[in-house]
Amino acid sequence: MLAAAFVIAVTAMIKEVLGWLMNQEPWLMFAAPFAGILCAVVLLHLVAQGKAVQRVSGSKAPPRRFTAWLRFPASAVRADLTADVVRHAGREESFPWRLAPIRAAAIVCTVGLGAPMGTESPAAHLGVAAGSAIGGRPGWLRSLARPAGLGGGAAGVAALMGLPLVGLVFMLELGRRKQAALSLPRILAAGSGALVGWGFSVAFDLDFIRLVVPAIAPGDLVKALATAALVGALSGAVGSVTGTAIYQARSWSAGPRTKLIAGSAVLLGSFLAISMLATPAAAIGPGGGTISWAEATTASVWVILVVALLRCVATTAAVAAGGVGGLFVPLLAIGDLCGRSLAPMLGVSGDLGAAAGAAGAIAGGYRQPLTAITMVLTVGGPAPSRLTCVVAALVATGTGVLTAYRLDRYVLHRKAGTPTAH
């Protein structure tokens, strides 16, 4: 309950600020994200003296064997706000919960003022922090820190998404990156937290993240398989490239000032390009404005796809500049655009292409295939549409793993000064 209330309060504040910003003049909409990122950098590096900065988990290169890489080595954990959640999976009582207030302030500045980052990993991070804070209390409450931390994270994600199974699976699947056991106590802790978070969502009629529900079935088996294969492959590959780029941005060893200037320059160029191709509202925020534009636009397939790629660049630039937020929601928007760009060619509805693309981007880019599958099975829509999205997520998982593996091998060879093996 504490975690859900904390996450809801922070997310509601972000939504209110972002809603106000979306109704302002374009110049203010463009200026606000840079002010937000600057505030986040000042909070983390000056006020907190760098102690609250999230860094890349693991310093070793991914294993050379592809089969070993499939198990998601520590060095492949993308360092967004879930890095601490992964690092302390299975020992949540040691989670750095005292840093949560300063990180919450940085999240509100970054996401609330329109940077292209999301709120799901902040929900997990702040939820785990709220639960594990019990470990800092004396007496018998200390023994509840581990299950409370896990349950708090699930409660935060479930309250944000409005889907209890997504909160449960998200936290358990994330913990597997640190080889945290799928034991009955962990399942019960995450499950009870997810139910509480979902209860808050229902009781207060929350609507934080809008998920596309495909209303029209694909029509026949050939269209369903073609949609799953092509949309899954495209969204998985694009999401995987974005994840790798963000990992490299996090690994950049430059100082905060250099990162802020370089990242902001790239972010500004992305904003201007997206506003020219789409609308200013499509350029800022986690991605809701982008999806709204895509639903109403008559632009060509190539324009939609270019906007998706520019959103990839914008999110990577925001991370490089020092922004604090999640990657799940931006990847949902990127996958949505990838799917919509292929829908006319495949002869399916835009919503089905969007839902399949969103699931594919999460499975291939965020490396959360079980979460993606759970999301599409529980969000609604005709059964054939859900199954199409499930297959798209599976295709995206394979495409995303292969793409990220080849990119990591390429980067490793470049750093070693040796030619890339073919």
Q: Can you describe what's shown?
A:
By secondary structure, the chain is mainly alpha-helical. It contains 18 helices and no strands. Helix 1 (2-21) runs parallel beside helix 5 (100-112), helix 7 (145-161) crosses helix 9 and helix 10 (221-251) crosses helix 16. It folds into two domains: 2-203, no CATH class; 221-416, Clc chloride channel (Orthogonal Bundle), CATH 1.10.3080.10. The chain starts with a helix and ends in a 6-residue tail after the last helix. It is globular and about 65 Å long.
What brief labels describe this structure?
422 residues; mainly alpha; 2 domains; 0% strand
For the termini, the CA-CA separation is: 53 Å
Number of E-type strands: 0
Rg calculated over all Cα atoms: 20 Å
The amount of beta strand, in percent, is: under 5%
Overall form: globular
Give the rounded overall mean pLDDT: 88
The ordered string of helix (H) and strand (E) elements is HHHHHHHHHHHHHHHHHH
DSSP summary: helix tally: 18
- What is the total domain count? 2
